[in-house]
Design goal:
The complex is a heterodimer. Chain A has three domains: 3-58 and 137-241 and 354-421, FAD/NAD(P)-binding domain (3-Layer(bba) Sandwich), CATH 3.50.50.60; 244-351, Succinate dehydrogenase/fumarate reductase flavoprotein, catalytic domain (Flavocytochrome C3, Chain A, domain 1, Alpha-Beta Complex); 431-547, Fumarate reductase/succinate dehydrogenase flavoprotein-like, C-terminal domain (Methane Monooxygenase Hydroxylase, Chain G, domain 1, Up-down Bundle). Chain A is 34% helix and 16% strand. Chain A is built from 18 helices and 19 strands. In chain A, the strands form five sheets. In chain A, strands 1, 2, 5, 6, 7, 8 and 15 form a seven-stranded mixed β-sheet that branches. Chain A has a four-stranded antiparallel β-sheet with strand order 14-9-18-19. In chain A, helix 15 packs antiparallel against helix 16. Chain B is mostly beta strands. Chain B has two domains: 1-59, Alpha-Beta Plaits, CATH 3.30.70; 65-108, no CATH class. Helix content of chain B is 8%, strand content 27%. In chain B, the strands form three sheets. Chain B has a three-stranded antiparallel β-sheet, with no helix packed on it. In chain B, strands 1-4 form a two-stranded antiparallel sheet. Chain B has a two-stranded antiparallel ribbon with strand order 2-3. The radius of gyration of chain B is 16 Å and the shape is globular. In chain B, 42% of the residues are buried. The chains are: A alpha/beta, B mainly beta. At the A-B interface, helix 6, helix 11, helix 12 and helix 17 of A face helix 2, strand 5, strand 6 and strand 7 of B.
Chain lengths: 588, 127
């Protein structure tokens, strides 16, 4: 590249006590908690969009789905999540977040979130763990609190990698989408809260609806990727999230199943969950089975499947639409555009592209109860953190709070870490390479082209929707082999502006996440979570050998990924499965 | 095409460099063309249908319809934020032209017409 081009990019250095990467659900609560308990600490949030509407909550939310309604406790919550996750979770993590549901929800209510209350002022429950909210403006409310807390917010800055001081995380680098700036954030501790990963597999819809996804298509797994590159241990990526969603619009179905008690039926009107999956809990079977059941019905010729809403009144139909408008407005338009009235017609459902997400499932950083990752100085909260499914919104708040408290304590009295210039220069080159390639490479690879290649590999060899989410050793070997080619092509990516530079980093981060995901899928030689992880060569759950967490660590020196097993620890006594699904006697 | 900025209604938020629709899109998909002084959805294929742009537009100039593959023309859904910012009225028109309204409680925070950039350096990156 020309020297003059290099000089056209400003370098801006920010030093802070704590850097929060990602100003979403967790990041905003981490910031407010830090400034409340440690007002003297300098806290920076770096966000690739604008905090007012960034992350998963851009469209809003109509319920808090992780809350302890009257009669429930942190322990009963752990038991339920353990059951729903087929007997394998980090109980310490789930319990510690449940203990903060009320604290975090009350906090956000005080900031102005409308929560539905009955005449006595009690929250209106929607199931055991759910309360109803009017959360269309939930994200701006969180963002305002973060801003008012005194944290400094950097909008439109795309973080591309972490900075290290030896083994310790010492900050991050990124570039601005709006100004020609390379950012160097040095920090005593980093809280990573970038969310999970969508876009690893072929999306449900094509062309100008390719981003009509349930999970935010802008969550590309950047936080996983930068942790993987830094040698952080990751857990349970193989527990992918395959969600049961409305057909085409891909809207959440809790509003139908919990909101108006709509049962799953197949094309014949049969309540197959109640018959075929009765021993696993029927309509209340663990979430993976409520995706697996419909997939099997369709596969065996009894599709489409529906959530049957035809028992509801016209007034309830209007209430349903109102609920969707607070969270997922396009569902209401979809019904209008297709002449569907949920009171007259059952709502067709389908399953989504597989996501890696620590908030619904448990793929993410391997952390301790303070949300410390295995890299010193690096904390993880929210969808990027592993081991604790069923977080949803309030669990992400709780994790942001826990990470903030621990990070705040850790940095008190600590000196600023040292980052050598050579590392910064290398990160600069890596960050802008696709842009500099514009004047160097005549025929290059567009980020979109690489994304489609990645999605094709994952779809066909690593259990995409079109393969009924099924996989075996041989197919996964093919995925591994093809994915190994992609990193060698990163230096062929060419972009001409900062928006596409963001897209380039999104895809190369997705490739890193996909490589790790495939190693996880290969390692678990059982089927613990059907649909999420259907191994046709190991179709049964195998507690004798696989009641373990599958973790991976990529060696930063040579890029080799090694698999590490951690045993499951039961902290809360009691059954781990539905009585009908008790473990089979070991046959050795 | 999911959201469309109506060029007849968009006034570019006068001389705003970063009008609300440009700022509120979580995907960085909307840009302002300073020649015509109008915003438009530059990356049509990448829209998430999340609607912060539609809600934040002070001129109500952004139309929401589905991608044609998702549903029939000419169904639309438009939010209108009340002056008290405590309610939104959504008007949903189906493919046959029938209209349905929903009034929903909320707490809409004010959105400024423009916002200064972080470290306010040279805008408009180009090589």
């Amino acid at each position: 590249m020309e020297r003059s081009e290099q000089q056209a990019i400003n370098r801006v250095v920010h030093e802070s006590d704590i850097l929060i990467i990602g100003g979403g659900t967790s990041g905003c609560l981490a910031a407010t908690e830090l400034k409340e308990h440690y007002p003297d600490l300098d806290v920076h949030i770096v966000e690739k969009a604008h905090v007012d509407r960034s992350g998963c909550l851009a469209a809003g939310m109509n319920a808090i789905n992780a809350y302890l309604n009257p009669g429930e406790t942190a322990e009963s919550f752990v038991k339920y999540v353990r059951y729903d996750s087929c007997g394998l979770i980090r109980e310490d993590l789930v319990q510690s977040m449940a203990e903060l549901f009320e604290y975090s929800v009350k906090k956000v209510e005080n900031w102005g979130l409308p929560i539905l209350c009955d005449d006595d002022g009690n929250y209106v429950p929607r199931g055991r763990w759910n309360i109803k909210i009017n959360g269309e403006s939930l994200k701006p409310i969180l963002a305002k609190a973060a801003r008012d807390s005194g944290a400094r917010i950097h909008n439109w800055v795309v973080v591309t990698d972490l900075l290290m001081d030896g083994d310790r995380c010492a900050g991050a680098v990124g570039f601005s989408l709006r100004t020609n700036t390379f950012y160097i954030f040095k920090a005593k501790a980093v809280i990573i809260a970038t969310g999970g990963a969508a876009g690893l597999y072929k999306p449900n819809n094509a062309a100008d609806a390719q981003h009509k996804t349930w999970y935010s298509p802008f969550n590309n797994g950047a936080g996983y990727a930068m942790g993987i590159r830094a040698g952080a241990e990751m857990t349970s990526f193989e527990m992918r999230y395959v969600a049961l969603r409305t057909k085409d619009a891909i809207a959440p179905t809790g509003t139908l199943a919990l909101g108006v008690g709509a049962p799953l039926v197949n094309a014949k009107g049969e309540r197959f969950m109640q018959t075929k999956y009765r021993h696993l809990g029927g309509d209340g079977a663990p979430t993976p089975y409520r995706a697996y059941g419909p997939i099997q019905e369709v596969k065996e010729g009894r599709g489409p499947c529906y959530l049957d809403t035809t028992h509801i009144t016209e007034e309830q139909s209007r209430q349903l639409k109102s609920a969707y408008l607070d969270m997922y407005p396009s569902q209401v338009l979809y019904w209008a555009a297709n002449n569907i009235d949920p009171a007259q017609h059952p709502v067709e459902v389908q399953t989504t592209e597989p996501y890696v997400v620590g908030g619904h499932c448990q793929g993410g950083y391997w952390i301790d109860v303070d949300r410390r990752s295995t890299v010193p100085g690096l904390f993880a909260a929210g969808d990027v953190a592993g081991g604790a499914p069923f977080k949803f919104v309030s669990g992400c708040w709780a994790e942001g709070i826990i990470a903030a408290r621990a990070a705040g304590k850790e940095v008190s009295g600590m000196a600023m870490p040292q980052v050598d210039e050579a590392q910064i220069d290398a990160a600069y080159e890596r960050t802008f390479e696709p842009l500099f390639n514009y004047s160097k490479i005549k025929y290059g690879v567009r980020p979109y082209d690489m994304e489609v290649r990645l999605q094709k590999i994952m779809e066909e060899y690593a259990g995409g929707a079109s393969c009924n989410y099924e996989m075996n050793e041989e197919r996964l070997m093919m995925a591994r082999q093809h994915l190994a080619e992609l990193p060698d092509q990163f230096d062929q990516l060419v972009v001409e502006d900062t928006h596409d530079l963001m897209r380039a980093h999104e895809v190369l981060d997705r490739v890193v996440v996909a490589q790790v995901l495939v190693e996880h899928l290969m390692a678990r030689k059982e089927t613990r979570w059907p649909a999420y992880q259907t191994r046709t060569d190991y179709p049964e759950r195998d507690d004798l050998n696989w009641l373990h967490f599958v973790n991976t660590r990529r060696d930063p020196a040579n890029g080799e990924i090694s698999v590490i097993m951690h045993p499951y620890e039961q902290l809360i006594p009691g059954d781990r499965y539905h009585p009908g699904a008790a473990p089979k006697k070991p046959t050795a | 095409m999911p959201v469309i900025v109506d060029p007849d209604l968009c006034n570019g938020c006068h001389n705003a460099k970063q009008p609300p629709c440009v700022r509120m899109c979580p995907g960085d998909l909307i840009v302002k063309d300073f020649n015509s002084n109008k915003a438009y959805l530059k990356y049509v294929d990448d829209c998430w249908d999340c609607l912060p742009c539609v809600k934040a537009c002070p001129e109500e100039a952004i139309r929401f319809q589905l991608s044609y593959q998702m549903g029939y023309f000419n169904a639309t859904l438009q939010p209108h934020v009340h002056k008290d910012r405590q309610h939104i009225t959504w008007t949903c028109v189906d493919a046959k032209g029938n209209s349905e309204e929903f009034q929903i409680r909320t707490k809409v925070l004010p959105v400024a017409l423009d916002e200064k950039l972080d470290d306010d350096l040279t805008p408009d990156f180009s090589i």
